[in-house]
């Protein structure tokens, strides 16, 4: 089965295959399934860019997209996620993309659903296609990961981007720096060394900013937006200390003038909108892998258990 | 005009034609309209499976689906259902599928709308495509309806499934048993004989469970879920008394361990997910009938009345 | 760039070109883009007919439509409209249609977004495709605009239809009459002469009724719906005084028996549902113009500014 739940489950070889495939798509590469493919996108949390990006990737691959409105769904009637996905499987959907507020929601589906599931974000857990698009953007810039310094800056503790990226970047040979207010340090994440923001910005080839998940977070610290920006954000002043050829990433949506000075969002160093473009290509690669795997595996699944 | 409002309005011949057509689709049968077809699905009540099932059927037939979001529609501005459907007709939609909370909402549309309307559920009234998928699933299992005993179990009074199915099954030659708590008996439905649940389960070839519409219903009777399950549900113990070759149906979404023991949902006797699969085929048959009827009838409709 | 924000920005020549193109589409005219086109419809306010009409136009042109749900979007997370549209641009959307509650929301996008934007209604501002469909309906009836008298009746002050139409009709050579309760007169709109409703109805070739935006408006004046209808609406009695060959328009949704007697909505003089049909054709013309302009212009846009 070619689910995609987390990058941690993928080998370096598999990750590089996905990035190579995405790179081919970015250059106009073409692929079509040998039979009609039906997919559904189950977004139980708001998202513009991730959902639209998957929708675009699906259409570029010629898939049929079955609309699924979480607000109008039977989940409102108390149906479990498992029964919802089994329903979609029964009516002929060939793959599902899921975003859900529960960490590791996919564990309840992993061994029982017979169509590929692509994780588009689980709670404070993982967001593998976001990590892949970050990796693709970095690789396009520097050609490789070994020897690079990547600074991940902001709310490390609550970020699925920080969790996914720090592990995989370390595995790929990059050095990871973390920088965050004391309150947002994450002792459970061993893949980065904490430094102050000025050091992080000055030493990094890649300055990867995180979104403040909830603006009230800053307020809880007793900081105004301006104060947060000054102490922990990428200000114009800090940006001038960045290394030659270094780049800025942000998973977006951006809180302008909080995590990053507004005028830097579309500056020469920024790859923020490039990341969004790359998101479509990595999702095409992930969807292609899912559908090809399904076709190769056939109906391998064990028969249902007989009760009684 | 080839509306589909209720099965009661269809002859046995018409019902069998629809089932035959659905059976053909289930075996990979192919049909395409001779010109582009545009449809819209107007769901004013939540539903995962019915809406997704229609969406799938429409795409398998190559139709274009115009998204309609009831929450964002002008119905919020007080527009009548008639004016909404007339609008869709005016912009070129060729057929509409409607689910609405009002019983027999379609009476206001029957003689004035010139495109086919397919009822996907009206209040506590009818749900003809659900009945058709139940019939198809039974026919696939037993080859015919005459001589079968079908037990319909649960909230008979508030169920559009019970209403639609009891009438048509009786007409097709099956014997219908009802079983329900005293509060949910339906004196207005003459097509079944009430028996206790143990008798119903033991005598039936088809055990058709109904969904408890609102969980508070059980609470109103002063019963916990566990007590309801024990008294009126398909428990593991009762399932062991089922006849050889008998099957379990449920329109879903299922309240696991209320109407039915959770482990029975995907047991060997269960056809619950088979029903969902069949739902796509019967909807393809109903949509094909609607569009073919429209094309055959042409613009037969009377000119608008001249006022003044 | 071939944005469409307001008709005021278009020359008479451009307007006539759009109407000619729409007329061709109404007669079955065909056009397909030379490469795949992806569009998104961003509706931040409820609308059945405008959104469905664009969706239909897009599919008739063979475009791929990327679903965008304003309620589920990152706008809820405080993202600016600019960043949302830039995101869609980045993922490969080729044109966007926007309805937004803010007057002239497009000024923040005009010089910075590099894909065409089509205004589907801005606050109390403009609604250019509604004006175009009104113009097409009038031109189909009378062949030209010069010499016609058009009466616009109702809530002149809050209507983007009144604003757009009065200006362009005057420019095209028609005479515009306004009729409205004292409270709803609009001193800022110089393109019409106020007359009482009986005069307006009796002198007009085109009786263009406006929707009462909020039913409470009538209540604020201390009028029941019946009283409003009697004093300011198109009653059956007034309709009998209309000129030979004159027609009735309404942008819909209609408040039946408020702005207009219910039985007049589908009477011989009414072109209300014809307007809706024409809406699809003018939107096809506007979308074609947008995509052709984009292709002709190429990537003309200035490079982003380098900060630092």
From TrEMBL, chains A, B, C:
Carbamoyl phosphate binds at residues 49-50, 99, 127, 130, 252-253. This is Aspartate carbamoyltransferase. Heterododecamer (2C3:3R2) of six catalytic PyrB chains organized as two trimers (C3), and six regulatory PyrI chains organized as three dimers (R2). The gene is pyrB. Residues 147-288 form the Aspartate/ornithine carbamoyltransferase Asp/Orn-binding domain. GO terms for molecular function: amino acid binding; aspartate carbamoyltransferase activity. Keywords: Pyrimidine biosynthesis, Transferase. GO terms for cellular component: cytosol. L-aspartate binds at residues 77, 160, 211. Its EC number is 2.1.3.2. Belongs to the aspartate/ornithine carbamoyltransferase superfamily. ATCase family. It catalyses: carbamoyl phosphate + L-aspartate = N-carbamoyl-L-aspartate + phosphate + H(+). It comes from Saccharococcus thermophilus. The lineage of its organism: Bacteria, Bacillati, Bacillota, Bacilli, Bacillales. Catalyzes the condensation of carbamoyl phosphate and aspartate to form carbamoyl aspartate and inorganic phosphate, the committed step in the de novo pyrimidine nucleotide biosynthesis pathway. InterPro entries: Asp/Orn_carbamoyltranf_P-bd, Asp/Orn_carbamoylTrfase, Asp/Orn_carbamoylTrfase_sf, Asp_carbamoyltransf, Asp_carbamoyltransf_Asp/Orn-bd. Pathway: Pyrimidine metabolism; UMP biosynthesis via de novo pathway; (S)-dihydroorotate from bicarbonate: step 2/3. Residues 3-140 form the Aspartate/ornithine carbamoyltransferase carbamoyl-P binding domain. GO terms for biological process: 'de novo' pyrimidine nucleobase biosynthetic process; 'de novo' UMP biosynthetic process; amino acid metabolic process. PROSITE patterns: CARBAMOYLTRANSFERASE (PS00097).
């Amino acid at each position: 089965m070619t689910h995609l739940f987390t990058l941690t489950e993928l080998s370096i070889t598999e990750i590089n295959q996905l990035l190579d495939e995405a790179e081919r798509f970015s250059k106009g590469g073409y692929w079509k399934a040998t039979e009609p493919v039906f997919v559904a996108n189950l977004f139980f949390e708001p998202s513009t860019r991730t959902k639209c990006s998957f929708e675009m990737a699906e259409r570029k691959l010629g898939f049929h997209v079955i609309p699924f409105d979480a607000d109008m769904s039977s989940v409102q009637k108390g149906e479990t996620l498992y029964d919802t996905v089994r329903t979609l499987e029964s009516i002929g959907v060939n793959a599902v993309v899921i975003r859900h507020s529960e960490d590791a929601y996919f564990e309840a589906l992993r061994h029982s659903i017979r169509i590929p599931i692509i994780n588009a974000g689980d709670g404070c857990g993982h967001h593998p296609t976001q990590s892949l698009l970050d990796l693709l953007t970095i690789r396009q810039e520097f050609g490789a990961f070994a020897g690079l310094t990547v600074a991940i800056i902001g709310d490390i503790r609550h970020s699925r981007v920080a969790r996914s990226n720090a592990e995989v970047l370390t595995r790929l040979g990059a050095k990871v720096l973390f920088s965050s207010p004391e309150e947002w340090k994450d002792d459970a994440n061993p893949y980065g060394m904490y430094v102050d923001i000025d050091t992080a910005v000055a030493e990094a080839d890649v300055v990867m900013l995180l979104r403040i998940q909830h603006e009230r977070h800053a307020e809880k610290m007793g900081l105004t937006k301006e104060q947060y920006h000054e102490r922990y954000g990428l200000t114009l002043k800090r940006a001038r200390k960045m290394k030659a050829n270094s780049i800025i990433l942000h998973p977006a949506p951006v809180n302008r003038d909080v995590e990053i000075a507004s005028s830097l969002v579309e500056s020469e160093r920024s790859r923020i909108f490039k990341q969004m473009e790359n998101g479509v290509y990595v999702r095409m690669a992930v969807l292609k892998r899912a559908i090809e795997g399904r076709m190769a595996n056939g109906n391998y699944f064990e028969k249902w258990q007989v009760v009684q």
